[in-house]
Amino acid sequence: KQNGLNTVQTYVFWNIHEQKRGTYDFSGRANLSQFLQDAANAGLFVNLRIGPYVCAEWDYGGLPVWLNNVPGIAFRSNNEAWKREMKRFVSDIVTYVDPFLAKNGGPIILAQIENEYDGDDMAYVDWCGSLVTNEFASTQIPWIMCNGHAANSTIETCNGCNCFDDGWMDQHHRDHPDQPMLYTENWGWFQPWGQALGIRTPQDLSYSAGEWFTGGGAYLSYYMWHGGNHYGRTGGSGLTTAYSDDVHLRADGTPNEPKYTHLGRLQHLVIEHAEAILSQDSVRSPVPYWDGKQWAIAKEQLFVLFNNQNISISLQSVQIYDYNQHLLWNSANVSNINSNNTVIVPVVTGTLDWQFFVEPSQTNLPKITASNPLEQLNLTNDETIYLWYRRNVSLSRPSAHTIVQVQTRRANSLLFFLDGQYLGNFDNSEHAQGTITVDVPLNLSQSHPNQQYLFEILSVSLGIDNFNIGPGHFDYKGIVENVSLDGQSLIGNETDVWEHQKGLFSEARQIYTEQGSKTVEWNPKWTTAVNKSVTWFQTRFDLNHLAREDLNANPVLLDAIGLNRGHAFVNGNDIGLYWLIEGSCQSSIPCCCLQGEIRCGQPSQRYYHIPSDWLMPKNNLLTVFEDLGASSPGSVSIVQRIVIT
């Protein structure tokens, strides 16, 4: 709000609010009504993007995985099973938010149905429009459909890097002359594991925003303004826990300069002169101007004569002047903003005192047996990212280079064990879905021929795909087809069956909580000799020297250097997947609006945000589950990003 913004838009995540069909959750982080009330209290309008498919780089695009098991369902299509479930959920959300609609004095002024639908099922598009016209007409607010097909009863909106230069604005004006021009996503970008951080320059983003308003754009949303985090297991396939760290507010909430201040200045000018801006149309002219303010758009360096004064316009820039030829804002100039505005400092002195607990292999958790390995999500319902597969095996020729071949999915990790001994792993961190066949060499030179061993595979989901979700496009995890070891097939045997265990023993005990921590026997001292896979580490730290206000302005972070990969919990709250995988720069710019990359050769993500309301002044419990094995948990620290004013 202090940066000239007057509207916040949010998705409604179906898989957060209805993890089990018919059971709704609006508590804690799912407290949508509190979010809407907070927006109202701050004087912000709301664009409620219900979807219910939302993409959003979110786990399964916001869809609950139990939809996979609805008989005959085909997502996002004119399919009766899909339409029945979609209509039920959206209707329930509309009823829930009714007190917050504009007609009732609430902040919701826009709502969205569907999301970026570019398929060819126009009957489905028309059906979405009929919901708006009939069932949801009582909301008395406009409904939108973004970045794809839009029904006649909805407003078509744009997502992209520049909705002026790409021709969208002119096309929309021709096709829908009676509709306002709404820009629902002016893109930043996300970061996949294993890649460096892609950046979009503040000059390019500012040029895009400035151009939009010169054409009479009525609504512009920066996607994202605040980068945010995939806490818990909410990230889409292969994506870092920090959703976007190059936007106006970093993932930890601190200003990313010069982008934050530069775009804030534009927004204040837009609010100040909104009436004049909305009077413009999308016809490009050399010097549009209105009510004492002048915008100039240049494709090359040139001079514009304005009130008998030559004004220099640089390449790809938007400039705002007043009648006295005072330059108010130049999209291309950020030189007067300090970009080195934060510093990271330790807030817990000394080395953390760790204890550890090795995840047990054999437990009394429920098991499911089958002659073939079963698909993961069907067993876990996305309530955990872990599934154990176990089967007895005997090998005729064990060697130091025994090959296990598995058909699995993208954005999946597999850890291999023999009689509880860790042998190796396979990782795929692609931001994608699809089945892949992998060959992993295992050292079985210490095994004996024709002797029976327990072969175990721990499958770790690295996120469910959020993008390619539609008819016939379900995502799956774990082992999906064949498994062989040393050329011997391990499926279809009625004698040696596969045993499946949902989740981890220590997850079920919740040993990352105060009460759960007491249910297992911790080894009181960590040493550098402890570098085992599937191991839990735990420590405590104090923050009583920090004021609550300081925690909000200068966020506390977990510096994960010394770890490898796993999940971290603070006072029982899952701050998300950490992974110290190296971020490599791509041979070409990864995608879309990006102009370059930074932090090449460094971890894709080193620092992990800890929300201030999860922290206490003293005796904070930090628990780490390390699935691959950590070389130096003693290097882990609690730090704070200090904003320098």
TrEMBL record:
**Record keywords:** Glycosidase, Hydrolase
The reaction(s) annotated as catalysed by this protein in its Swiss-Prot or TrEMBL entry are: Hydrolysis of terminal non-reducing beta-D-galactose residues in beta-D-galactosides
- Pfam families (UniProt xref): BetaGal_gal-bd (PF21467), Glyco_hydro_35 (PF01301)
Q: Which residues form the Glycoside hydrolase 35 catalytic domain?
A: 1-267
The family classification in the record reads: Belongs to the glycosyl hydrolase 35 family.
Query: By what name is this protein known?
Result: Beta-galactosidase
Q: Name one GO molecular function term.
A: beta-galactosidase activity
Q: Which residues form a coiled coil?
A: none
Q: Which GO terms describe its biological process?
A: carbohydrate metabolic process
Family matches, as PANTHER family:
BETA-GALACTOSIDASE RELATED
What EC number is given for this enzyme?
A: 3.2.1.23
